[in-house]
């Protein structure tokens, strides 16, 4: 239905019986094809309906006939539009003739374009729907726009009058695709438009300066509730925000009016663009209610962008439903330093955590199902079910072929495997006592900390104890936060270790055959979500691992995208969860190691509340800055923004706490002694056995992610301030091989929080008439 001519232009020539919908379907395909920079709708006039013309993207409309391009021409704005090539050809010919022109026929886009161009050149334009002897004798030139055959008797013309017949340059039922008269010149000018379109496309791929429009704040005193403040501000449409910060239309996927996913193709487009300055916001050891690091991030970004007029981007984690409905509440910031709409931010957002939950629990289901089937079937029956005959043909799937290769089996014909090879292929031989993968749910549910599965009669007595973790503790969440692309994420998902075989060999998600399905479930979750602050500054919300039971930072991808978008002189501000002892330490030694990025500035948040809880703070040193963003928005953080700008201009002396070559035990000891202030560590026999096993499997070079209480530098939440004289107990050690770290469990740390006596959900409600939410904070 479509044939390409030239390098970047496509000509549509459709069968005459095609419907309008079929034409539009073809046009839509060409709209989305990045290889096509121009489209020529070479169709019968009856097929060039307004709906067809306006389906074509204006930037690919090299005939300049869409309503938008005609409007641009009339307005005189040709920075983005195109002059219709046929009209341009006529004007080229008219340049050698008189100033009075009779236009016969042509009431569509071409006629409008010609009249506009002629009047702009100062010509006198006469109109007639058909040939007229009286009018033609007044004209120096006659332009016949009507399609089809049209004779002009010579006696009707003044001597020397030029007649330009455009009908043969249009497609008509009589002449088909015959080109004559102005046809060759029209074709040449059309290709000129294609060149111009290609050039604009190439320029559009370059970095675009920001045109950010800040939203005005009118802070009230006393400060209203967070949700009242959020509702009082009208956010910009997300497509407008995306355009202001230099995103292309094809780089965003809108989720409603105020949030959008951003495609990773942006990294390829801006790969040569220098990064901006990288700022980390961390905090002192917090109270159970949190100390406002997110609020500082947002207030700082608002000050940098709305008040100092510097490109700046906030990168935050997606909040878990656990704390949102538990004690801490939401994580959108607070007061006049918030991400808006805060209800959308704090609840489902774009479904990333749901995708993680689905992917995680698919792995869990696959584990138990595989153990059941292996325990109840012989090799031959397992093989026939794992590699079934479809229409008389048996073949391995690509994932199964990859498993054969890992087993050292080169054969790909299912009928050619030897019995021992069949047995090795079908049996993972997972030890139920050594399954390390848990199910997850995004709710604080203490009664799922230990459960028994397989109690139904259909599971044939295959009962085992297991547990649920909170969804943000899933290794898949950590992978999402540390992956640098879809391919990297898929590889990491495949190498997740879910347990050990009875012979002590690690069993991975790829061994289960589920890695491809996991990538499918996570393909949209890997794209960061774009939102905005109360003052219209951009925010990326992506990933949400806790810092006490995971590494506690937003995604590498969000940071990398933002660093390209802000430009060399801009700022990207992100946060590390909980206190500096866990969130910041993991940012340095895990996230920066994985991403290759290095921070330029660190902002340490210290609140009066936290200082009081920990027994009084240290003396205030030079360059400590008071902040009032909660009550005043960005204006209340201008002093902090200026300090960050000054600090960002200084050289960074970043270094890792330990090298990858350092043994696992010594890495743990270095963190305990140099970060927490412990005298030493104490390994349980189980933890020591795990270290020996991980060393044997070649995991010894992985970084350490301590799972520890966030309420104290020690393992005991009640020990405040800077405790000394303690030994840090390591009761167990686990490995997230896909994410790429080892995580010791310190003390009685749990991976499933519980609800308090009075959770936040007591105050959360919905008006069924207005759909207004109350009680979120």
From TrEMBL:
Pathway: One-carbon metabolism; tetrahydrofolate interconversion. It comes from the Eukaryota. One of its GO terms (molecular function) is ATP binding. InterPro entries: Aminoacid_DH-like_N_sf, Formate_THF_ligase, Formate_THF_ligase_CS, NAD(P)-bd_dom_sf, P-loop_NTPase, THF_DH/CycHdrlase, THF_DH/CycHdrlase_cat_dom. Residues 2-63 form the Tetrahydrofolate dehydrogenase/cyclohydrolase catalytic domain. GO terms for cellular component: cytosol. Keywords: ATP-binding, Ligase, Nucleotide-binding, One-carbon metabolism. GO terms for biological process: carboxylic acid biosynthetic process; tetrahydrofolate interconversion. Its EC number is 6.3.4.3. Pfam families: FTHFS, THF_DHG_CYH. In the C-terminal section; belongs to the formate--tetrahydrofolate ligase family. In the N-terminal section; belongs to the tetrahydrofolate dehydrogenase/cyclohydrolase family. This is formate--tetrahydrofolate ligase. It comes from Oncorhynchus mykiss (Rainbow trout). The gene is mthfd1l.
């Amino acid at each position: 239905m479509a044939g390409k001519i030239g390098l970047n232009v496509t000509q549509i020539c459709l069968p005459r019986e095609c419907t309008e919908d079929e034409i539009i379907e073809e046009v839509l395909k060409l709209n989305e094809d990045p290889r096509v920079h121009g489209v020529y709708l070479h169709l019968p006039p009856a097929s060039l309906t307004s709906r067809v013309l306006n389906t074509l993207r204006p930037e690919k409309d090299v005939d300049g006939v869409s309503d938008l391009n005609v409007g641009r021409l009339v307005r005189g704005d040709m920075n983005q539009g195109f002059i219709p090539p046929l009209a341009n050809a006529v004007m080229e010919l008219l340049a050698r003739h008189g100033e009075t022109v009779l236009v016969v026929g042509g009431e569509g886009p071409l006629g409008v374009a010609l009249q506009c161009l002629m009047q702009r050149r100062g010509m006198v334009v006469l109109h007639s729907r058909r040939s007229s002897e009286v009018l033609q004798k007044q004209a120096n030139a006659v332009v016949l726009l009507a399609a089809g055959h049209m004779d002009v008797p010579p006696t009707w013309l003044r001597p020397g009058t030029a007649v330009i017949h455009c009908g043969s340059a249009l497609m008509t039922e009589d002449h088909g695709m015959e080109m004559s008269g102005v046809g060759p010149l029209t074709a040449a000018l059309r290709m000129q438009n294609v060149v111009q379109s290609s050039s604009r496309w190439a320029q559009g791929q370059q970095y675009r300066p920001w045109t950010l429009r800040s939203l005005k704040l009118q802070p009230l005193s006393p400060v209203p509730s967070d949700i009242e403040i959020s509702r009082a501000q009208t956010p910009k449409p997300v497509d407008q925000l995306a355009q202001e910060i230099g995103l292309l239309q094809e780089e965003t996927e809108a989720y409603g009016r105020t949030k959008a996913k951003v495609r990773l193709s942006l990294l390829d487009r801006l790969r040569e663009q220098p990064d901006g300055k990288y700022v980390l916001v961390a905090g002192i050891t917090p109270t159970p209610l949190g100390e406002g690091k997110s609020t500082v991030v947002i207030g700082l970004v608002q000050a940098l962008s709305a008040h100092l007029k510097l490109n700046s981007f906030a990168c935050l984690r997606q909040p878990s439903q656990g704390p949102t409905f538990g004690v801490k509440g939401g994580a959108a910031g607070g007061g006049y330093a918030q991400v808006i709409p805060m209800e959308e931010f704090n609840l489902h957002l774009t479904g990333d955590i749901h995708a993680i939950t689905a992917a995680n629990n698919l792995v869990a289901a696959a584990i138990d199902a595989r153990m059941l089937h292996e325990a109840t079937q012989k090799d031959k029956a397992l093989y026939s079910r794992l590699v079934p005959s479809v229409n008389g043909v048996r073949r391995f799937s690509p994932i199964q072929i990859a498993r054969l290769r890992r087993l050292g089996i080169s054969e790909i014909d299912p009928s050619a495997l030897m019995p021992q090879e069949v047995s090795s292929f079908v049996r993972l031989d997972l030890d139920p006592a050594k399954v390390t993968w848990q199910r997850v749910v995004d709710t604080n549910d203490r009664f799922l900390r230990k459960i028994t599965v397989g109690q139904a009669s259909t599971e044939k007595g295959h009962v085992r104890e297991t547990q649920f973790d909170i969804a943000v503790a899933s290794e898949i969440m950590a992978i999402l936060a540390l992956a640098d692309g879809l391919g990297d994420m898929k590889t990491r998902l495949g190498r997740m270790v879910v347990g050990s075989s009875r012979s002590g060999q690690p069993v991975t998600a790829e061994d289960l055959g589920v890695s491809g399905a996991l990538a499918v479930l996570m393909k949209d979750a890997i794209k960061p979500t774009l939102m905005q602050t109360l003052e219209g500054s951009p925010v990326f919300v992506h990933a949400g691992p806790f810092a006490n039971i995971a590494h506690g930072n937003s995604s590498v991808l969000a940071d990398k995208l933002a660093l390209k978008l802000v430009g060399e002189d801009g700022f990207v501000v992100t946060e590390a969860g909980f206190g500096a002892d866990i969130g910041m330490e993991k940012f340095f030694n895990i996230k920066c190691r994985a991403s290759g990025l290095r921070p330029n500035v660190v902002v340490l948040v210290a609140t009066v509340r936290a200082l009081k809880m920990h027994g009084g703070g240290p003396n205030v040193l030079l360059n400590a800055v008071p902040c009032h963003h909660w009550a005043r928005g960005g204006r209340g953080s201008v002093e902090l923004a200026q300090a960050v700008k000054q600090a960002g201009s200084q050289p960074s002396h970043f270094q890792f706490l330990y090298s990858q070559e350092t043994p696992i035990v010594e890495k743990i000891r270095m963190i305990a002694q140099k970060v927490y202030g412990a005298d030493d560590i104490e390994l349980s026999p189980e933890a020591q056995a795990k270290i020996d096993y991980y060393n044997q499997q070649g995991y010894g070079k992985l970084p350490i992610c301590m799972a520890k209480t966030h309420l104290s530098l020690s393992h005991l939440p009640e020990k405040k301030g800077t405790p000394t004289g303690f030994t840090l107990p390591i009761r167990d050690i686990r490995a997230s091989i896909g994410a790429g770290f080892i995580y010791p469990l310190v003390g009685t740390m749990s991976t499933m929080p519980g609800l308090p006596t009075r959770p936040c959900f007591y105050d959360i409600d919905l008006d069924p008439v207005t759909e207004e939410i109350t009680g979120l904070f």
